Amino acid sequence: MYRIKLQEFEGPLDLLLFFIKRDELDIYDIPISKITKEFLDYLHFLHELDLEVAGDFIVMAAELMQIKVKMLLPQAPGEEEEEDPRAELVRRLLEYKRFKEASAVLSILETESVKLFYRQGFHSDPRHVTLEDQEESLKNITMYNLISAFKKVLDSVPKKIYHDVELFNVSIDEQMSYIADVFRYRDQVTFFELVQHMTEKLRIIVTVMAMLEMVKNRLIELQPAAYEDDFIVCKARVKAA
After folding, report:
1. What's the burial of 6, exposed, middle or buried (CB within 10 Å: 0-12/13-18/19+)?
2. Per-residue model confidence as pLDDT tens digits over 41-54
3. 92 with 125, same domain?
4. Hey, which residues does 189 pair with through a beta bridge?
5. Pair 18, 7: CB distance under 8 Å
6. How far apart are CA 56 and CA 36, in angstroms?
7. pLDDT at 177 over 90
8. In a domain, 52, yes or no
9. What is the rounded distance in angstroms from the CA atom of residue 226 to the CA atom of residue 209?
């Protein structure tokens, strides 16, 4: 008996990105004939194995063939130059790639944060926090808000060249204490305000991990700010008994 392990793809865009990465293709100049053939070959392979093909894969196959046909049609003399038929697909792939990478970053932060102990001191007991409570703390913030603000802060930190080896220690517990101290005097603060005096990227990264741990334990909440690449950190609201 033979077993075949198939790589799982979250959707047609995920499959296309796999082909682009595997074959080292230029995402801005996709060889549409090549990638359409590979996409259709994959669907045919699933069909041969008698596996169900999701509808969105069928739709993408039709879109790829439509793009291929448009690129083969000659442009009539005198017509204004049209947008590259691949442009919309490229935009969708870039957006999906951005969110996929953002998801990977958050997954790493989450994995690291659960390994560490948390600090008590807020009104919520983390042992009694439910999944609904955690979702409530993040309901108004998108993954893009978090990653965009995080990246902007890291990019703003000047790059330093060190000639001597210097040990730099910072812990999630320490940064949770720092965040808790901020809320002794304020009910809310923007993410930029929270990290504006930090000059080491490691401290900023650990602060984000501490912040996510506190959100998970329903100690703080995240709310959208006036600017897309920032967000507000505030104390978690106490639920009425």
Report:
1. exposed
2. 888 877 766 566 66
3. no
4. 233
5. yes
6. 15
7. yes
8. yes
9. 23
Is the pLDDT higher at 94 or at 75? Answer: 94
Instruction: Please give the pLDDT value at position 3.
Output: 41
Residues 80 and 165 in one domain: no
* Whole-number Å distance between alpha carbons of 172 and 212: 10
90 and 123 share a domain? no
Using alpha carbons, list the distances in angstroms from residue 214 to 28, 36, 118, 149, 199: 40, 46, 8, 18, 23
Q: Which residue range(s) make up the domain with 226?
A: 118-235
Answer yes or no: are the C-beta atoms of 87 and 48 closer than 8 Å. Answer: no
The verdict on 229 and 128 lying in the same domain is: yes
Domain count, the chain: 2
109 falls within a domain: no
Which DSSP category does 190 fall into? E
Do 85 and 154 share a domain, yes or no? no
pLDDT band at 206 (very low <50, low <70, confident <90, very high): confident
pTM, to two decimals: 0.46
As a whole number of angstroms, the distance between CA 213 and CA 180 comes to: 12
Angle between helices 87-113 and 55-72 (to 10 degrees): 140
What would the two tokens of residue 130 be? Answer: 């439910």
User: What average pLDDT does the segment 64-87 reach?
Assistant: 78
Shared domain for 153 and 225, answered yes or no, is yes
Hunting for tokens 């501490």 — which residue is that? 210
